[in-house]
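Pilot study result, target chain (190 residues):
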Amino acid sequence: MKIIFLILLSLKLIYSGEERGHKSTFNIEIYKDKNIVKIHTFNSDGLDFIMEADSDYHLLYLLKKDKGKERLVVKWNGQGYAIRFFGITRKMRTAEPMVDRHILPYWLQEQIRSGKIPDKIELLVPELGPVPVVFEEEKGQDTLKITMIIDGIAGKIFRKKFFFYYNKEGLLVRYADSSGRSLVLQRIEN
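Predicted structure:
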């Protein structure tokens, strides 16, 4: 049985992460419950993310805490998102739920599995709103590298690149970005 099918039921992943020379461990638990995907990510530094998405990995709910303190809440209400960031709530109208930056690696896994990675999407960045991004694929012998680049005016301002590396089964094995952050898969627990 391939790992990608396990992701659809239940999976626990352990990644080592690094940012500005600081190392941490990320624990990620992914569950599929009917047509809802639940993802819980927590790290050794006290970051804690609880996310829910529809079966296509469009964000329905996100709670982000740092050392127990709420930092971000995003809720789909059928007409858009209610976004609470550092205690301030605002609304963002959109016709359909969107792929969020926090859930993007799992959405990309599904795109790899279906064989349809789009060239461009609008990515929900709750702190900013919809941000256009483009994807470039590079197939290696054992991995698929997907580079995400911010497009449009935001891309001219931020000029960042994000690199996602997936194994043959479509599982994220490594992440890096042009800011120096990285994640590397250490083990899978079931």
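One observation from the pilot: The first strand starts at residue 10 and ends at 19. A full batch analysis is planned for the follow-on phase.
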